[in-house]
Amino acid sequence: MFRNVRFYRLNSAWPDTEQQLAEQLAAAAFRPCGAYTERSTGWESPTGDPDSPLCRRVDGADLVRLRSQTRLLPAAAIEDALETRVEEYRERTQEEPSRREKRKLKQQTRDELLPKALLKSERTAGFVIGAESLVAVNTLSDNRAERFLDHLRAPLGSLDVAPLSFRRPVAELLTQIFLGDAPRGFVLGHECRMQDPSDTRATIRCADVDLGDAAVRKHVSDGMRLTHLGVEFNNVMSCVIDHNGGISKLKLTGMDGKDEAADDDPLARLDAEFVLLTGTLRQLIGSLKQALGGYDEEAAAA
What we know:
By secondary structure, the chain is of the alpha+beta class. 35% of the residues lie in helices and 28% in strands. The longest helix is centred in the C-terminal third of the chain and has 26 residues, at 266-291.
């Protein structure tokens, strides 16, 4: 369901009911691109059913999904078609088009090709636990996360959020786990990424290796800084945590390859997966909070 997660702290009010949230999101519902529209973005039902509400509240967590649709019109395709128009102009007028005329021809070419362009959709899911002031977005991209939050902010009128941060850096915990002093619930995984603090281009990536090997740990002892570390959490989740607290390669134990009967209720299956995901991530945030001395309240209020 979620492969990557960026966490945020919610500092403003959140709708009390699923119905209230769905009605507010409806003001910014997704609409497909028109013939001459290059991009359209809005909220769609996270269940995949166009007739369902634009959010799904399960166990106090609201699942929402943003959809962006783009018309794919490569610049090279416009230039090729423009050459034909320019040649037709020369034959018709017996002269070269001026810069102004060429711009006009290019716009006409683009307008003619745009309705025929292929459509591509990008979806970004997220969830909000209002009672715990927690927002999670299924991406590690800054731009994509900001676009998600901006489109969530618009129908709600306001949305005060800040990246989730703790009193001590997440990097301290990664180093602690890496050096064999993991807090309860955390187990060292099999991949990591290190960076030279004096030269950010100098990096080391380790995958499918024994990170407990003295030769591997020596890199950190010699001054390399951990930026990513694979961990297992509570025997129910594996992931890679970066030094900013972002989660990637998230995998819930038992979710892959599970038997799915043909008559399974897709909505019930979605709810079950969502409950498992949010429950596990709640536990993870609680453990991070405990290990890192609590939330950084000053950063959250900034």
